[in-house]
Design brief:
DUF3388; four-stranded antiparallel β-sheet; single chain; Rossmann fold; ACT-like_dom_sf; UCP021288_ACT; alpha/beta; 263 residues; 2 domains; Alpha-Beta Plaits
């Protein structure tokens, strides 16, 4: 029988030398293999483990609940956030009220790129919005994640190197394996009807689409925030407020939002 992967996360209640060894020995006695282990939060450890059957996991959980040195937080089939937490040693911050909104700060660009790359690898239609102030690294992160996911990216509208507004695609650009990037402000403020016909065409394709400034995008189109599968927020620091009034007053998006890659 093929082994199945599980995610175990526990909180340390009484930290003492040899605690991790005790957990490892227990897993060994139950013939459960450790794939990866890492700290995922202050006082917490996360493990990816391999078990031959569910009975092993039931026995493991039963024994772990008798230990007063740890508290089991999660024991489940691993989700994407679990895998990334073990890989990077920290959890992606998720909005408590809106479960499809994920928050990052600039010093977490590696985690953000890894997260988006995993989303980009998934087949079929996916609409992703990314919020953030100018020069925080939005477009660069999307491009880097596209490279990691081995996806060809296409700017439908953008201000990365120069202002881009596409009105048509050539034949080989119509491909469900491509990733399409739109700037919500550029598309809604500077595009014509031919551009919007192209946007609607792309939206109907079973491909990944990333929209920067999704709030501006939905204000001026028939699409809504509910149409988005994921919303990503990127800030310079956790307390930064993402606002558009100053940006619009100063016309900061008129020529170049970034002026080059700013990792």
């Amino acid at each position: 029988m093929e082994k199945k992967e599980w995610y175990l996360e526990y909180e340390i209640q009484k930290n003492r030398p040899g605690l991790l060894g005790d957990i490892s020995s227990l897993l060994g006695m139950l013939a459960i293999n450790i794939v990866t282990i890492n700290g995922v939060d202050q006082g917490r450890r996360g493990l990816l483990i391999l078990a031959k059957n569910d009975e092993q996991i039931v026995r493991l959980e039963s024994i772990l609940h008798t230990m007063d040195t740890i508290k089991v937080i999660k024991l489940r089939e691993p989700k994407l956030r679990d895998r990334l937490a073990v890989r990077h040693g920290r959890y992606i911050q998720r909005d408590a009220d809106d479960k499809k909104t994920f928050r990052f700060v600039r010093n977490e660009l590696g985690l953000l790129v890894d997260f988006m790359a995993e989303l980009f690898k998934q087949e079929g239609h996916k609409l992703i919005g990314i919020r953030g102030m100018p020069r925080v690294g939005k477009t660069e992160s999307v491009v880097a994640a596209s490279v990691c996911a081995n996806k060809r990216w296409l700017f439908v509208s953008s201000t990365l190197l120069k202002q881009t507004i596409r009105n048509q695609l050539i034949e080989d650009e119509y491909n469900a394996d491509n990733l399409y990037i739109l700037d919500g402000i550029v598309s809604t403020r500077r595009a014509n009807e031919r551009h919007w016909q192209l946007v609607r065409e792309i939206m109907r394709m079973p491909a990944v689409k990333v929209v920067e400034h999704p709030d501006i995008f939905v204000q001026n189109t028939e699409y809504t925030i509910n149409d988005f599968d994921y919303i990503i927020e990127l800030r310079n620091d956790p307390d930064e407020e993402i606002v558009y009034d100053v940006v619009q007053q100063n016309n900061m998006f008129a020529d170049s939002d970034f002026g080059g890659f700013d990792f």
